[in-house]
Amino acid sequence: MDTAKQIHNENSWLFDNEKLIEKLESAYQGTSDEKQSGSVLRCYGFKASNMNFIIDEATACEILEESNIHFVPLSATWLIGVSNIRGDVVPIIDLEKLINGDDTNAEYKNRKLAIIGKGENTIGIELDELPVLLEFDKRKKLNDFSNQAERIRPFIQYAYTKDDDIWFCINFPSFIQSISF
Amino acid sequence: MINSSIISNISINKKLTILFISVAIGFAITTAAYWFKVMNERESIERTNLFIEYSNLISEAQKNYFKVRRFEKDFLLSISASTGQTYNNTPLDEHAKHVSLLEDNMVELRNLGDKINASRSEEVVINEIEMPVEYIPELVTQASTVVDNYKTSFSDIVKFNQFVGFTDNDGLRLKAKQLLNSIESNLETANNPKLLVSIANLRFNEKHILQSIDLTESYENLKIETQEFKNILKRTALNLQNKNILVNYIDDYLNIIDEIVTNKRNANEYTELYDFMLGPMFDEMGRSSQLSIIQNQAALEKDTIVATIVVSILLIAIAILISSLLFYFGDSIRKPINKLLNTIHDVNKGNLNARVNSDQKDEFGELAESFDQLLDEKVAQLSYSEKENEELNESVIKLIKAVAQLSKKDFTVKVPVSEDITGAVGDSLNLLTKQTADALINVRTISSQVAGVSNIVHKQSRLVMAVAEQERKQVEHTVVELNKSSDAMNKISEDAEDANERADNAIKNTQYALTAVNRSVEGINSIRDTIRETEKRIKRLGERSQEITGIVNLINSIAERTHILALNASMHASAAGEAGRGFAVVAEEVQRLAESAREATTEIDTLVNNIRIETKDTVTAMNKAITQVADGTQLAEQAGEAMQHTEKSTEDLVKAVEKITISSKDQANVSQQIVEKSKEIVLNTRKTDKYLQKQATNTNNLVKFSKKLLSTIRTFNLPEKDSDPYNINVATIDVPEISDAMKKQDVDASGNDKVVNA
To answer: Where are the domains of chain A?
Structure first.
């Protein structure tokens, strides 16, 4: 009895992670009923510049904080500055000013940044809140984007409503390429 | 013979001086003789040492001389026998070395000879012939001259031999050898063995000439052989020219041999000369030194004997002289002393006419004369004393008779007064008798007065006894009262002691209370310190809470970062599609953990904030408590001060009570002492009473004795007196009656002490 208890104590970490293992197994072996049905979309979303964005699977995104942002003189007003992200010079932009065409100079508020894109088509966006895992009802998908800002409208792929908020999925690579610094 | 009268006339001081000078001179002469003997011995020993040294040096010189001669012979032998190409110089070097040593010896001998000559040496006797002292230095000088000559001669010998040739290859010997060789070479053609034999004989004789000392025979043989050679040569078949050549050769050879013989003879002559000169000279020197030592020792013995005889004779002469002087001086002292003693014996036997009658002029003569004078004076004094004694006896008898009458108590008798010494005694006795009679008269008068006064004293003593009895009773009553007073004082003292003990207890209680108050103050102070320490610790707890807040913030920050990392991981996993699904699960779990951590930290932060608030409240409460404790401490200190005042007051009270106690004890002691003194007074009063009774008895006795004295004095027959200076009227003395005195005493006592009524 003592030996069995000792073995149990030695492998207690295994029993503590049983739930995790079950989740892992379920993640590799199959999907939930809802997902199988395709009515629910699980993806991350974040808030920036008073707008809600969805990060789809095709978009590379990384959250950074406390990055050193260097001011670029004589640049566009919406350009907060540039930052060195693992060797790549990434422009940090104020999305609200860019979309709304505000002429006042943007200021970095030392918030968290969402680094979106890969390679040369990478930009940094100042976040209002950290991204959260969201589940959208596919049936609440929006198709009319006429009310949205002209600057961003061509790049909206889709949008869902959730709790009276509209969440946009932007084709960030195209949007980035469209931006002329 | 010494005249005894002359010695008798010399004073004793002069005799002693003569004796002392004689002894001093005798010892001085003896010492000088002994000193001369010692110095002579010393000189003789020094001379002997010089001769011994001289003998040693002669032996050394002889040794070197023998070595010189030996190396000389070695040299001669080596040159005569040498046939080699070179000559060995060793004998010549050794010869020169020892010649040098011999010269040194001779120099030293000359110096020593001078020393011997300088010393006072006796004549040297050699072979029973006395020689002068200078013989030895002369001998040494001659030997030195001979040594020098020998050195010169030996150099000549060497030159002769060098001319002859040390070897066959030099000098005349070489020439001789060459000539014989030439003859031999020319004889080869002759083929005549006789000539060759003749040549061999020539060489034999030549060699013999070179090696032997006696050259004559060899030389003659060689000359005969040369003639024989010429004769044989004539008979040979050689041509004439060769014969002439050979004859010339043999003549030349003979001439060379002649020169060799001449030189060898000269050399041998020198050698033989020194054989007979130096050796005997050294022998003579050695013998003379030995003889000198023996002779010197003999002289020393002779001097020693002579000195001993002289000293002995001197000592005997001094002894005879001193003995003679002592005999005569002693005789001159002994005779007058004996004469003086005989005179004293005669005087002792009663012969007052015996006298010394000395005719000596010295101190004994003066002594005898003084003694005779003394005897004359003493005899005169003795006869005068006898006469005086007879007169004195008569006066004394008279005095005794008068004293016998006085012994019969008759003071009217007069003692006869004579002119001698007893006259003064008689006057004194008369004066004494008169004074005694006057004194007795006075005694009689005073005795009658004493009798009267004794009666008065007797009455007064009775009165005093009555008064003393009364005083005794009063004193006893006083003692009783004092005892009561003493008991009361003792009671007061005990009460004071009790009060003192109670005051001590009060002090102890006060001190206990003060200690308790002090402890309370200390306890309150301790509480205040504890509260302050608690306050500090609570403040530290608040500081720790702030640190915890910092740590919580750090954890929160880490959780947030973890959250972001998990978010990134999840997003990357989502981007990876199907492949990142498992990783997305892990990332989500990590994200949740980070979220849980953040929530936990938020809760901790809330709790810590609550703790800080509580801590702050606690600190405030603590401060209030500290204030209250400080007030309590102040109150306790005030109570302590009040207790100290109380303690001080109590101590003052105790001191006052102690003073009372001490004073009451002192008073009790004083009372006790007064009681004791009163008892002593009672005892003394009783003693006084007793003594007064004795005094009364004695007063009665005094009256009786005064009466008896009067009756005794009346037995003397005294001369009549006109007036009595000590006559006192006894009846005029006022003596109070006892009853009156007692009454007066009662009056005095009733005024002071009513207890006494007796």
So the answer is: 1-30, 35-178
* CA B712 from centroid of its chain's CA atoms: 89
The one-letter code for the residue type at B427 is D
| Residues B657 and B725 both lie in one domain | yes
**Residue type present at position A179:** I
Q: Provide the phi-psi class of A119: left if phi over 0, else alpha when psi is between -120 and 50, else beta.
A: left
Q: What tens digit of pLDDT does each residue of B112-138 get? A: 877 777 765 555 555 555 555 567 777
Phi, psi of A41 (to 5 degrees): -110, 120
Instruction: Identify the sign of the CA torsion B329, B332, B335, B336.
Output: negative
Same domain, B506 and B369: no
**Residue A55: burial class (beta carbons within 10 Å; 0-12, 13-18, 19+):** buried
Say yes or no for a CB contact (<8 Å) between B582 and A63. no
Residues 6+ apart with CB under 8 A from B753: B474, B477
Q: In this structure, are B402 and B425 located in the same domain? A: no
CATH number assigned to the domain covering A35-178 = 2.40.50.180
Residue B109 pLDDT: 84
Query: Domain end: B256, B277, B311, which one?
Result: B311
**pLDDT (tens digit per residue) in B154-184:** 888 888 888 888 887 788 888 888 888 888 8
Reported ipTM exceeds the 0.85 cut: no
Same-domain check for residues B378 and B444: no
B546: closest CA of chain A, how far (Å):
25
pLDDT at position B186 is: 79
> Is B331 contained in some domain?
no
Q: How far apart are CA B250 and CA A56, in angstroms?
A: 166
Mean pLDDT for all residues in chain B? 79
Cα B16–chain centre separation = 46
Domain holding B82, by residue range, is: 4-311
The DSSP bridge partners found for residue A133 are A44
Cα–Cα distance, A107 to B12 (Å, whole number): 161
CA–centroid distance for B269 within its chain: 86
Give a yes or no: residue B756 inside a domain: no
Question: How close B592 comes to chain A (CA, Å)?
Answer: 11
Torsion region of B242: left, alpha or beta (phi above 0 gives left; psi -120 to 50 gives alpha): alpha
Given B571, B575, B584, which is nearest A131 (Cβ)? B571
Q: Residues in chain B whose beta carbon is closer than 8 A to a beta carbon of chain A?
A: 561, 563-564, 567-568, 570-572, 574-575, 577, 581-582, 584-586, 588-589
Domain count, chain B: 3
Neighbours of B693 (CB within 10 A): 14
Report CA torsion sign: B323, B324, B329, B331: positive
One-letter identity of residue B578: E
- Report the length, in residues, of chain A: 181
Assess whether B438 and B401 both reside in one domain: no
Encoded tokens for B171: 């000098």
Do B137 and B113 meet the contact criterion of CB atoms below 8 Å apart? yes
Of B571, B584, B586, the CB nearest to A55: B571
Q: A18: which chain B residues are within 8 Å (Cβ-Cβ)?
A: none
Does the structure show a pLDDT above 60 at B651? yes
For the segment B348-357, the average pLDDT, to the nearest whole number, is 84
Query: Radius of gyration of chain A from Cα atoms?
Result: 21
**Closest CA in chain A for residue B569:** A62
Inter-chain CB pairs, A–B, below 8 Å: 48
Q: Is the same domain home to B45 and B130?
A: yes
pLDDT digits (tens, 9 = 90+) for A134-151: 888 888 888 888 888 888
Residues B402 and B468 in one domain: no
* Residue B72 covered by a domain: yes
Query: Are B615 and B468 in the same domain?
Result: yes
One-letter identity of residue B414: K
* Most confident by average pLDDT, A141-150, B212-221, B599-608, B742-751: B599-608
For residues B30 and B315, the answer to whether their CB atoms sit within 8 Å is yes
